[in-house]
Design a protein that fits this description.
By secondary structure, the protein is α/β, with parallel strands linked by helices. The protein has 14 helices and nine strands. Helices cover about 50% and strands about 15% of the residues. The longest helix is centred in the middle third of the chain and has 29 residues. The structure holds NADP nicotinamide-adenine-dinucleotide phosphate. This is 2-hydroxy-3-oxopropionate reductase.
Length: about 280
Amino acid sequence: MRVGVAGLGRMGRPMAARLIAAGHEVTVWNRSPGKADGLDATFAATPRDLADRAEVVVTMLADDAASDAVHRGEDGLFAGKLAHTFLEMGTVSPGHIRNLDATTRAMVIDAPVSGSTPQAQGGTLKIMAGATEDELTHLRPILDVLGDRIEALGDRGRAAVMKIAVNMLIHGMNQTLAEALALTDAAGLDRTRAFDIIAGSAAGAPMLAYRRPLYLDEAAHDVTFALALARKDMDLALALAEGFAVAMPQSATTRDRLATAEAAGFGARDMAAILAHERGET
Ligand code: NAP
């Protein structure tokens, strides 16, 4: 299939690499061109050029503003001629998805993912889609290369809501884990042993296993999920909750701690850096 991928960040690049390896005819575009180096794909000059060359466009962009600029900006994806389906796989708001879908005659589907860079590399992402099973049929050759579990949630925007709900737990756990380790550190327990006991307990979760190196020595490892994007996720969650008049006091605290860490210069570091922040380190 002719597939376009816009957004070659930490997640988008390994996803594009998997689509190339699976034999799709892939065209890529990224705001900063160097990110495509080494990929066996055509580099489009603009998002419009990308959409001219692809039947299906996958976007993996930072946030609503980035996604809006790439879809609806001058020479944006929606100005292209060929693409009939746009899969927005970044974590964005449901309102943004509905706005995009209303702007074009093509189909815009929210298809955010759970999992991080190892899962993007291995094709084991959990994909939530704001579409019916029928609507996903022609997309299976793409989705099955990227993920090993695909949830068709029906209406546009539902997957965006679901993804935000999942990340409330991820970021809440990140915060509580940081506090727990700050406490065990202060009480003189060995960090590695304390982490492994938590990870092996009833509180253990898959993300503790694959993010273990970052919690044990964040500075020694590449960023997999920037702290600023975690704050963005919590902003999305709180805005959504406000719209439904749902109280989320714990999530508000998680958001505030992330924002405080970001203001202190931690935004580009991995979200595990919240541990260093809670410990008063730089
Ligand atoms: P990332 O490495 O920071 O990449 C962000 C991408 O968005 C880059 O390609 C960047 O282009 C592009 N971008 C940002 N602002 C833009 C703008 N105004 N116009 C055009 N392009 C713009 O982020 P990531 O970790 O891959 O995450 C991408 C999305 O997936 C986010 O919504 C994130 O929340 C979500 N997500 C991430 C993970 C994870 O573990 N990392 C897991 C699940 C979901 P440049 O290269 O030019 O900056």
